[in-house]
Design brief:
Keywords: Signal. This protein is mainly β and 124 residues long. The protein is built from 1 helix and 9 strands. It has one domain: Lipocalin (Beta Barrel), CATH 2.40.128.
Protein backbone atom coordinates (compact mmCIF):
# COMPACT_ATOMS: atom_id res chain seq x y z
CA UNK A 1 0.00 0.00 0.00
CA UNK A 2 2.86 2.39 0.82
CA UNK A 3 4.48 1.78 -2.62
CA UNK A 4 1.16 2.53 -4.31
CA UNK A 5 0.92 5.86 -2.44
CA UNK A 6 4.48 6.81 -3.48
CA UNK A 7 3.79 5.98 -7.14
CA UNK A 8 0.54 7.99 -7.04
CA UNK A 9 2.41 10.98 -5.56
CA UNK A 10 5.08 10.83 -8.30
CA UNK A 11 2.46 10.60 -11.04
CA UNK A 12 0.49 13.50 -9.55
CA UNK A 13 3.67 15.62 -9.49
CA UNK A 14 4.64 14.61 -13.04
CA UNK A 15 5.14 18.12 -14.49
CA UNK A 16 7.52 18.98 -11.63
CA UNK A 17 9.85 16.26 -12.95
CA UNK A 18 9.57 17.33 -16.60
CA UNK A 19 12.80 18.08 -18.41
CA UNK A 20 13.22 21.84 -19.11
CA UNK A 21 13.32 21.19 -22.88
CA UNK A 22 9.81 19.69 -22.84
CA UNK A 23 7.28 21.80 -24.68
CA UNK A 24 6.60 23.22 -28.14
CA UNK A 25 9.38 24.78 -30.23
CA UNK A 26 9.27 26.82 -33.44
CA UNK A 27 11.93 25.83 -35.96
CA UNK A 28 13.72 28.21 -38.31
CA UNK A 29 12.47 28.42 -41.88
CA UNK A 30 13.83 25.61 -44.07
CA UNK A 31 12.95 25.47 -47.76
CA UNK A 32 10.23 28.10 -47.22
CA UNK A 33 8.52 26.24 -44.36
CA UNK A 34 8.77 25.98 -40.61
CA UNK A 35 7.17 23.80 -37.96
CA UNK A 36 6.21 23.51 -34.34
CA UNK A 37 7.95 20.57 -32.69
CA UNK A 38 6.53 19.06 -29.52
CA UNK A 39 9.38 17.74 -27.38
CA UNK A 40 8.92 15.22 -24.58
CA UNK A 41 10.14 11.85 -23.40
CA UNK A 42 10.12 8.68 -25.45
CA UNK A 43 11.00 6.17 -22.78
CA UNK A 44 14.26 7.29 -21.18
CA UNK A 45 15.23 9.54 -24.09
CA UNK A 46 14.09 12.94 -25.36
CA UNK A 47 12.30 13.10 -28.69
CA UNK A 48 10.34 15.62 -30.75
CA UNK A 49 7.42 15.24 -33.14
CA UNK A 50 6.17 17.65 -35.81
CA UNK A 51 2.91 19.01 -34.39
CA UNK A 52 2.09 21.93 -36.75
CA UNK A 53 3.46 23.16 -40.08
CA UNK A 54 3.56 26.60 -41.70
CA UNK A 55 4.51 28.16 -45.03
CA UNK A 56 4.40 31.71 -46.40
CA UNK A 57 0.59 31.53 -46.56
CA UNK A 58 0.20 30.46 -42.92
CA UNK A 59 -0.58 27.13 -41.30
CA UNK A 60 -1.02 24.15 -43.57
CA UNK A 61 -1.51 20.43 -43.05
CA UNK A 62 1.74 18.82 -44.17
CA UNK A 63 2.02 15.06 -44.53
CA UNK A 64 4.87 15.34 -42.01
CA UNK A 65 2.60 16.19 -39.05
CA UNK A 66 2.98 13.47 -36.43
CA UNK A 67 6.35 12.30 -37.72
CA UNK A 68 9.37 12.24 -35.42
CA UNK A 69 11.86 15.01 -36.17
CA UNK A 70 14.37 14.38 -33.38
CA UNK A 71 14.87 11.24 -31.29
CA UNK A 72 17.35 9.45 -29.08
CA UNK A 73 18.52 12.55 -27.18
CA UNK A 74 20.09 12.10 -23.77
CA UNK A 75 20.06 14.98 -21.30
CA UNK A 76 23.19 16.26 -19.57
CA UNK A 77 22.09 19.41 -17.76
CA UNK A 78 20.99 21.89 -20.43
CA UNK A 79 22.79 19.96 -23.19
CA UNK A 80 21.38 17.04 -25.14
CA UNK A 81 23.37 14.64 -27.29
CA UNK A 82 23.42 11.22 -28.86
CA UNK A 83 20.32 11.82 -30.91
CA UNK A 84 19.26 11.89 -34.53
CA UNK A 85 17.47 14.66 -36.40
CA UNK A 86 15.57 14.37 -39.68
CA UNK A 87 15.46 17.18 -42.23
CA UNK A 88 12.08 16.85 -44.00
CA UNK A 89 13.06 19.03 -46.99
CA UNK A 90 15.89 16.63 -47.94
CA UNK A 91 14.85 13.41 -46.22
CA UNK A 92 18.32 13.20 -44.64
CA UNK A 93 19.08 12.14 -41.07
CA UNK A 94 21.93 13.66 -39.07
CA UNK A 95 23.72 12.95 -35.77
CA UNK A 96 22.31 15.61 -33.52
CA UNK A 97 22.79 17.58 -30.34
CA UNK A 98 20.92 20.42 -28.69
CA UNK A 99 21.77 23.16 -26.19
CA UNK A 100 19.05 24.84 -24.14
CA UNK A 101 19.34 28.42 -22.88
CA UNK A 102 16.01 29.62 -21.47
CA UNK A 103 13.54 29.85 -24.35
CA UNK A 104 16.19 29.31 -27.03
CA UNK A 105 17.23 25.86 -28.26
CA UNK A 106 20.33 25.56 -30.44
CA UNK A 107 19.96 22.44 -32.60
CA UNK A 108 22.65 20.99 -34.84
CA UNK A 109 22.98 17.92 -37.00
CA UNK A 110 26.06 16.51 -38.71
CA UNK A 111 26.94 13.91 -41.31
CA UNK A 112 30.72 13.55 -41.26
CA UNK A 113 32.22 17.03 -41.41
CA UNK A 114 29.05 18.62 -42.80
CA UNK A 115 26.86 20.23 -40.13
CA UNK A 116 23.67 22.28 -40.20
CA UNK A 117 22.46 24.45 -37.33
CA UNK A 118 19.21 26.08 -36.36
CA UNK A 119 17.97 28.18 -33.47
CA UNK A 120 14.51 27.23 -32.25
CA UNK A 121 12.36 29.39 -29.99
CA UNK A 122 9.87 28.21 -27.39
CA UNK A 123 6.20 28.67 -28.35
CA UNK A 124 4.33 30.31 -25.49
Amino acid sequence: MKKLAIIAAILAAGPAFADPVHGVWKTQVDDGNYAHITIGNCGEEICGVISRTFNSDGEWKSDNIGKPLVWGMNANGSNYKGGTIWQPSTGKKYRSKMALNGDVLKVSGCVGPICKKQTWTRVK
